[in-house]
Design a protein that fits this description.
Elements: H1 2-36, H2 42-46, E1 49-50, E2 55-56, H3 59-90, H4 95-107, H5 112-135, H6 146-170, H7 174-182, H8 187-215, E3 235-239, E4 246-250, H9 259-268, H10 277-310
Antiparallel strand pairs: 1-2, 3-4
């Protein structure tokens, strides 16, 4: 009787906590949608800020967010997946491997502002200034830029990608590896043809969720490349030799605008925060929508690859 009472109370408490979290999420998203739905329009999405960011749109911030997210993926995803494969499949259970795993797990819990300060100290002041010292001339690499902001975000999401990938690899039954070895396959053949196909859904899901977190971070890019107001796009035109043609491309050494930083600046640094409040809500709605699309892509990929494995 006492056990049933305790179980009933525990179940009611858990349900109450779950409903409270769900209610808070619904209220938060409802508030964002209600405040921003009337602001978001094609003109708002496709135009640059005007009149001291009190009017106009957010296209430079959307463009900068997409560029820095893609650059972060290129830097973090291959490195994180390869590191997890080495830790799970090759490093074994040695003391050094356990220390590396513990370090990666602890690194995943470091506050994001610490990564921002690390980005300034290591990427800009050490790496960038060293490159400028070798090449001579004015500062080019040793100043805030999209390249260093993306590198800082890549360092931020790298531990999360490693942990998620390692968990997906560990979930593959050991008997599948042993069966592959028994058939004469090498370790790399086992990893590439047996383990990775089964872990692919978990790897992609964890990686996309990590990337969606990085795309919404503000602290790591505060000092490493984000601009307060930059109505132009970070694009440079490269001339083709012996022709009069030029190719437009994203300049990774230029500064940029970003959605989360745009919200932060308008909410804290604007001379009239009340006047920019509708733009704040609209920008927040766009950022939440972008994060929702990334999460939806992760769910779709997971379902697709699970169905693919089940039909084999």
């Amino acid at each position: 009787m006492k056990r049933r009472l305790i179980e009933t109370i525990a179940l009611a408490l858990l349900r109450g906590i779950a409903l409270a979290v769900l209610l808070a999420t619904v209220l938060l998203i409802g508030s964002i949608v209600r405040g921003g739905i009337g602001v978001v329009s094609w003109e708002f999405l496709a135009s640059a800020p005007t009149e001291g960011m009190t009017h106009g749109g957010i296209f430079p911030a959307i463009f900068g967010t997409i560029c820095i997210t893609l650059l972060m993926i290129v830097m973090a995803l291959p490195l994180g997946v390869c590191a997890a494969i080495y830790m799970v499949e090759y490093a074994g259970a040695s003391g050094l491997a356990r220390v590396i795993r513990a370090s990666v797990n602890n690194l995943a819990g470091v506050p994001s502002i610490v990564f921002g300060l690390f980005g300034v100290g290591f990427f800009i002041l050490f790496v960038g200034r060293s490159i400028d010292g070798v090449r001579g001339g004015a500062l080019l690499f040793g100043q805030p830029a999209m390249l260093w902001a993306a590198a800082t975000l890549a360092v931020l999401v790298l531990p999360v990608i490693i942990v998620n990938t390692a968990e997906a690899l560990t979930a593959v039954p050991r008997s599948h590896r042993e069966a592959s070895f028994a058939l004469g396959a090498t370790r790399w053949q086992t990893v590439s043809r047996v383990v990775l196909p089964q872990a692919r859904a978990g790897i992609l899901t964890g990686s996309i969720l990590s990337i969606s977190r990085g795309a919404g971070e503000t602290a790591p890019i505060l000092f490493t490349g984000c601009a307060y107001f930059l109505p132009r796009l970070p694009i440079v035109h490269l001339s083709i030799p012996f022709t009069e043609l030029s190719i437009p491309m994203v300049n990774p050494l230029d500064q940029f605008m970003e959605l989360s930083y745009h919200i932060f600046i308008m909410a804290t640094q604007s001379t009239d925060a009340a006047l920019t409040r509708p733009i704040q809500y609209g920008t927040t709605l766009v950022l939440v929508g972008l994060t929702f699309v990334l999460n939806l892509a992760a769910i779709s990929l997971r379902v697709r690859y699970r169905r693919g494995l089940e039909t084999r």
